[in-house]
Design brief:
The complex is a heterodimer. By secondary structure, chain A is an alpha/beta fold. Helices cover 45% and strands 16% of the residues of chain A. Chain A contains eight helices and seven strands; from the N terminus they run βαβαβαβαβαβαααβ. In chain A, strands 3-2-1-4-5-7-6 form a seven-stranded mixed β-sheet, sandwiched between helices. Chain A starts with a strand and ends with a strand. The relative contact order of chain A is 0.20. By secondary structure, chain B is mainly beta. Chain B contains two helices and nine strands, in the order βαβαβββββββ. Chain B has a six-stranded antiparallel β-sheet, covered by helices on one side. A three-stranded antiparallel β-sheet of chain B has the order 4-5-6. Chain B is globular. Classes of the chains: A alpha/beta, B mainly beta. The complex binds zinc ion. Zinc ion binds next to loops of chain A. Chain A: InterPro entries: BshB2, GlcNAc_PI_deacetylase-related, LmbE-like_dom_sf. Chain A: One of its GO terms (molecular function) is hydrolase activity, acting on carbon-nitrogen (but not peptide) bonds, in linear amides. Chain A: Its cofactor is Zn(2+).
Chain lengths: 219, 117
């Protein structure tokens, strides 16, 4: 099986903040990466700082930011067309089938997604669960490995240490560039850091320099 | 969006009265509120493309915080904390309240055609 990584997250910017360092290390080895992005983050609260978006212009702005971030990371992008904040109310089985149709086509060696129940945002939990279900629908011998990302404050306590801990400081420039591509969302978060730190890039590096994943056990 | 001019905004609200309109109403403190501060709660609500008709609408308030009420035949629509507004390219009236970091806290939008997305 040739290597191909599929990243499954619900929001534009989840890939940048969560996995862009890991994605970069795969791309440096010439391994193809496809991002299945669930929504356009239509209901995001951040409107830029100072504000430049409205509730109605935000989807198109975030779509362009997402396209740019994927260019920065050199990954193939598929936008799945769900609506922000509503994923947990969709049929998990239907979303899983939808995701599964991409997996059948791509035949990935690895799927990266959120760890259901430990990913804080309801969309993260719901899409992560659907992604894992989508992999489970495949015959056992064809299933890719699944790396599940936990974010909740209690994940170390409950789940223990993640098996995959990627130090991404060596590719941090790329990670930072992908975050900056999501300008409407990054403005707010980075200004928080900016208030406290002199060197924003260095501060972000200590804060975002590691990407950790649990290897999903289908047993 | 522009800071609210109460007279201009009132005119826009009046123009949309007694017509069938689509309303987007939303309030949120974000999905991460209790993640970053365990003493806070995640609360939010939204309704998109509610098809209504209001007989009277009114904006009340001053400086940086305004309330808007729309009186329906058998009910009300209410939003507190709006401080900016605009008429977008579709002619929809968008009102919103942002916090100091530019994050949306409340939105009330009135349109004669359904909102996209
Ligand atoms: Zn997200």
């Amino acid at each position: 099986m040739s290597e191909h990584v599929v990243v499954i997250y619900p929001h534009p910017d989840d890939e940048a903040f969560g996995a862009s360092g890991t994605i970069t290390t795969f791309r440096e080895k010439d391994i193809p990466v496809t991002y299945l992005c669930g929504t356009l983050g239509e209901m995001g609260r951040n409107m830029g700082n100072p504000t430049f978006a409205t509730r109605e212009t935000l989807p198109e702005i975030r779509k362009q930011e997402l396209i740019k971030a994927c260019e920065v990371l050199d990954v193939k992008l598929e936008m799945l067309g769900y609506r922000d904040k509503t994923l947990e109310f969709e049929s998990r089985e239907e979303v899983a089938k939808h995701l599964n149709s991409y997996l059948q086509e791509i035949k990935p060696s690895l799927v990266i997604t959120h760890y259901p129940g430990y990913a804080v945002h309801p969309d993260h939990d719901a899409f992560g669960a659907a992604a894992i279900r989508a992999v489970e629908m495949m015959p056992e011998e064809e299933r890719p490995a699944v790396w599940a990302q936990a974010i909740s404050n209690d994940h170390l306590e409950v789940l223990g240490q993640p098996q995959v801990q990627n130090d991404v400081t060596s590719v941090f420039r790329k990670k930072f560039a992908s975050i900056l591509a999501h300008k409407s969302q990054a403005d707010g978060m980075l200004s928080k850091v900016r208030n406290e730190e002199e060197d924003i890039e260095l501060a972000a590096q200590t804060w975002l320099g590691r990407e950790s994943f649990y290897i999903w056990d289908f047993e | 969006m522009e800071p609210i001019d109460i007279n201009l905004l009132q005119q826009e609200i009046d123009e949309r009265a007694n017509k069938q309109v689509y309303v987007h109403l939303e309030t949120t403190n974000g999905a991460y509120a209790s993640h970053f501060n365990k003493d806070s709660y995640n609360v939010g609500a939204f309704i998109r493309n509610a098809k209504v008709q209001y007989e009277r609408g009114k904006v009340v308030g001053a400086e940086s915080t305004y309330r808007v009420g729309l009186k329906l035949e058998i009910g009300w629509i209410y939003a507190e904390g709006v401080n900016k507004y605009e008429i977008n390219e579709n002619g929809s009236l968008l009102m919103a309240g942002h916090d100091r970091e530019g994050r949306l806290m409340v939105a009330l939008q009135i349109s004669e055609t359904p909102f996209h997305y």
